[in-house]
Amino acid sequence: METWVWLTAYVVGFGLLQVLLYRYFRRGDPSPETTEGRVDRTGGPGPQAPDSQGVVHCDHCGTDNEAHRMVRYCRSCTESLR
């Protein structure tokens, strides 16, 4: 009988620990901070072509990204570069 008491206490304690950890990490604002000076994408010129140094500038945040055919998303804001 003593084994079942310890097992029940362990399961309940472990569940309580999981709930407390979940609430600790989920508190606050879950949305990311906005960046100052974002570019308005409505009516923009479409996909950027790489410049002479092999760099593509993100229309969304202005970050320089490698101009490679396998790179489809900005490394900073993860918006599509195409």
TrEMBL record:
Organism in which the protein naturally occurs: Haloarcula rubra
Protein name in the entry: DUF7577 domain-containing protein
Transmembrane segments: 6-25
Region annotation (Disordered) ranges: 28-54
Pfam families named in the record: DUF7577
Domain DUF7577: 54-82
Keyword Iron-sulfur: no
Keywords of the record: Membrane, Transmembrane, Transmembrane helix
Record carries keyword Transmembrane: yes
Regions of compositional bias (Basic and acidic residues) in chain numbering: 28-41
Domain of life: Archaea
